[in-house]
Write a structure and sequence with these properties.
About 90% of the residues lie in helices and about 0% in strands. By secondary structure, the chain is mostly helical.
Length: about 110
């Protein structure tokens, strides 16, 4: 094999290697962009879900306040029973929280 032939083969090897590397980088860049786009969409979706859950919580708090004042009532007995169970659970949690707060303030003295 002469020097010219070897030189041509080396040049072809590096040219093909550079071309393959460039194609790999382009593909990798596309995948990174796709991943980034999907990640951004997932973050935005999660933010919207958090805002929705905050509104559900706000709505639940308002309904609780109205029920506590006997302003709202239910005509369907199953709905009333379900609501009363949740309402009583909330009252129980509030009582338990108050007991813990009392214990903490007692221990702080």
């Amino acid at each position: 094999m002469d020097t010219e032939n070897l030189s041509k083969k080396m040049k072809d090897f590096f040219t093909n290697g550079a071309k393959a590397s460039k194609e790999a980088f382009v593909k990798a860049g596309d995948k990174v962009q796709e991943f980034s786009d999907k990640s951004l969409i997932k973050i935005e979706k999660k933010q919207l879900e958090n805002k929705l859950n905050a509104k559900y919580s706000e709505l639940g708090q308002k309904i609780y306040e109205l029920a506590d004042k006997n302003i709202i009532s239910f005509t369907n007995e199953d709905d009333k029973k379900s609501f009363d169970e949740m309402f009583n659970q909330i009252k129980d949690f509030q009582k338990l929280i108050q007991e813990k707060e009392d214990l903490l303030s007692k221990n702080d003295k």
